[in-house]
Amino acid sequence: MTATSASPRVTFEALRDFIRAAFVIQGLPESDAGQVATLMAEADLQGSDGHGVIRLPQYSRRIQAGGINVRPDIRVVREKAAMAVIDGDNGMGHLVVSRAVDLAIAKARECGVGWVSTRYSNHAGPASLYARKPLEHQMLGLYFAVGNANHLPPWGGMEMLLSTNPIAAAFPAGDEPPVVLDMATTVAAYGKVKARAKRGEPLPVGWMIDREGKPLTDATRAGEGFLLPIGEHKGYGLALMVGLLAGTLGGAAMGRDVIDFNADHVSVTNTGQAILVLDLAAFGDPAAFGEALDALIRDIRGSARLPGVERIWLPGEQSHLKREAARKAGIALAPSLVSELDQLADSLRLPRLARLGEAGPV
Amino acid sequence: MTATSASPRVTFEALRDFIRAAFVIQGLPESDAGQVATLMAEADLQGSDGHGVIRLPQYSRRIQAGGINVRPDIRVVREKAAMAVIDGDNGMGHLVVSRAVDLAIAKARECGVGWVSTRYSNHAGPASLYARKPLEHQMLGLYFAVGNANHLPPWGGMEMLLSTNPIAAAFPAGDEPPVVLDMATTVAAYGKVKARAKRGEPLPVGWMIDREGKPLTDATRAGEGFLLPIGEHKGYGLALMVGLLAGTLGGAAMGRDVIDFNADHVSVTNTGQAILVLDLAAFGDPAAFGEALDALIRDIRGSARLPGVERIWLPGEQSHLKREAARKAGIALAPSLVSELDQLADSLRLPRLARLGEAGPV
Questions:
Q1: Which of A154, A176, B138, B267 is the most buried (most CB within 10 A)?
Q2: Considering its fold, how many domains does chain B have in total?
Q3: Is residue A14 part of a domain?
Q4: B81 and B119 together in one domain
């Protein structure tokens, strides 16, 4: 599924429009379809290609199986001045979380801080998209999510009671690109394991262990093992913390209740996410924060490197560069993915995704 | 510095009263001294012995050098409904953070969520103490702090621009003990490295690297190397995130501005911390949250274990058991620490710390 220099390229707009059309024909209202499509295409634009259009066939299977509500009544079910809980009515996660972020921004503007939890949401794509949304308002975003399949046992255990539960955080700088962290609490996300298996590559030691507790490096045997948390018991603690904040607190699934949405296209996942927004203007002068962060970024980037290290990166900097490059040169998609999307288009009786350099849809 | 079964034991009350007397004679008001002493003795009670009375000689050196304001005017300098920034006026960190937690609890009661940042604070002991405070109000606590010495370079670098910046989180269960996470974002806290050096023990591979990027296992050479972040670049990202939330956001020191308070007893540290409190009652029925967490705790504790693993622990469970045991049997202190405390008592013309089983102060 890896894109190479020989891979077909598409524009952001063509990709977005293709995804939107696929959702509209499957029953989503035009504006909802557009919102989901924009976020999915943004995922591909920034190189989060495990969370972009690659998920369209899976989402489509779930919609067609009745596992997603295409006309949800997304509504606030609990609310105080600085917080809310949103019930997503089993709609597309992108819609539910977008609503949550907008509400958290409004609350942060009023109260300095806003926290919104979701329940009955679904998989929503890359965490960084939602943590980044407050940036344009000179606000910070922190995002927590319960992953949509349990691949992580508690430390010392071998029952997969936890998921890769990601954390994302975004901080607006001044002249520098924002600092954007987006990380699973496991050493590797499960999507990376699947990608290695598809390419016939082994797993590095430290990604997974087998049921004897020994390193599992044969990617095709991934189903027999477990992901490892970062920092051993610490990553287990973080995954648990994120799950309690994003799941249990808002009344969403956690632990044994988590549905494996790769295997089950029908059951309501009751996915939970949580977004925290902090308004810089409440804490001081946002410009001063931007200057302080610019200085820190330059200190870090310009600091002495270990032998053999070419560059010190800030979190989010590589995605930033990928986004800039893909805006100019188009988004590269793996040939196997493009074939899969063509099949989906044919089955939905839609025009196929327009490649760059072609006159129009084929 | 390690306590053993042959170590002298003290009661919580004797330890607290000894610490309080030491602070009073050095100029802290009686009630402030009592508050700091209680928190420091609670650190020892729960086994956080790198953050308890072991710090008293260091705090005393700083107070005597004029590096701590013993009569601070701790005040709110920025405020909105759900947030505040507190200026600690260079007082003891325990006092500044306690004020921040109390204010965050009050704001959470009103708005559902409360966030309070500190600036001009100081080292405040174990993060978990502050994350735990909201528990008695049926609230969750999340705590972030900038560490008081930079021991961590950015990933790929060798300039120590970051600290071990800890995260703590506490969740109230029903019948089970609370889930309490308290972790540095490095594989090992620097105090653990110092303890190994004192005992003449090597460091495990993975704790530190030298300036060639190779594992550093000779603890006596710790000064020539750097701590490693958990999960490689991920822990670097987390340490940066925590530093921005706890330091930069509230106008406290971060990056190059961080003072090494082990080496410098005079400069104002401008330490920053941040506490986030979420009121369970705003999100739903607190009893239902407790039941859900109890069920999850029991699922985790009772789940299948890897070969050779005797027990699966929940975060905070070991501290909980240590606290219960030390309440009954007393707190064991390393003989070398007790000698150091005796010297401090003599120099301050205070009665020495009363050991358990003795008639009174010697």
A1: A154
A2: 3
A3: yes
A4: yes
In chain A, positions 315-334, which contact chain B (CB-CB < 8 Å)? 315
Q: Could you tell me if B187 and B153 are in contact, meaning their C-beta atoms sit under 8 angstroms apart?
A: no
Q: Do B5 and B126 reside in the same domain of the chain?
A: no
Q: Are residues B90 and B207 in the same domain?
A: no
Is residue A151 located within the same domain as residue A295?
yes
A358 or B273, higher pLDDT: B273
| A191 is a domain residue | no
Owning domain of residue A223: 196-228
Residues of A in contact with B245 (CB under 8 A): 140, 142, 169
Residues 6+ apart with CB under 8 A from A166: A127, A143, A144, A145, A147, A182, A183, A184, A185, A242
Measured CA to CA in angstroms, residue A354 lies from A4, A12, A57 at distances of 18, 11, 17
* Nearest CA-CA partner of B40 in B62, B7, B18: B18
Distance from chain centroid for Cα A305: 31
Same domain, B212 and B301: no
What's the pLDDT tens digit per position in B239-266?
A: 999 999 999 999 999 999 999 998 999 9
Among B117, B171, B244, select the one facing A244 at the smallest CB separation: B171
Residues A33 and A83 in one domain: no
Same domain? For A1 and A111 the reply is no
Which secondary-structure segment (H or E) carries B85?
A: strand B83-87
Q: Identify from B77, B83, B236 which residue to disrupt to test chain A contact, counting A C-beta atoms within 10 A and taking the largest count.
A: B83
CATH number, position B303? 3.30.1370.60
Q: What is the CATH number of the domain that holds B200?
A: 3.30.60.50
Sheet containing strand A167-171, strands side by side? A75-80, A83-87, A113-119, A273-279, A139-145, A167-171, A179-183
Query: Is the CB of B283 less than 8 angstroms away from the CB of A171?
Result: no
The mean pLDDT of B273-296, rounded to a whole number, is 98
If you measure CA to CA, which chain B residue comes closest to A316? B237
Task: Please answer whether residues B150 and B258 qualify as being in contact, where contact means their C-beta atoms are separated by less than 8 angstroms.
Answer: yes
Q: Do A181 and B250 touch (CB under 8 A)?
A: no
- Do A295 and A341 fall into the same domain? no
Which DSSP state fits B267?
Answer: S
Closest residue of A to B187, CA-based? A231
- Cβ–Cβ under 8 Å, residues A304 and B159: yes
Is A302 in CB contact (< 8 Å) with chain B?
no
Query: Is A286 within the bounds of a domain?
Result: yes
Which chain A residues are Cβ-neighbours of B234 within 8 angstroms? Answer: 183, 230
Top residue of A230, A273, A291, A301 to mutate, by most chain B CBs within 10 Å, is: A230
Mutate to test the interface with B, among A238, A257, A298 (most CBs of B within 10 A): A238
Instruction: Chain A: give the shortest CA distance to residue B95, in Å.
Output: 21
pLDDT value at B360 more than 50: no
Which pTM was predicted? 0.96
Distance from CA of B154 to the nearest CA of A (A): 7
| Per-residue pLDDT tens over the stretch A145-191 | 999 999 999 999 999 999 999 999 999 999 999 999 999 999 998 87
For residue B57, what is the domain's CATH number?
1.10.1530.10
Q: Do B283 and A157 touch (CB under 8 A)?
A: no
Q: Would you call A259 helix, strand, or coil by DSSP?
A: coil
Q: Is residue A253 part of a domain?
A: yes
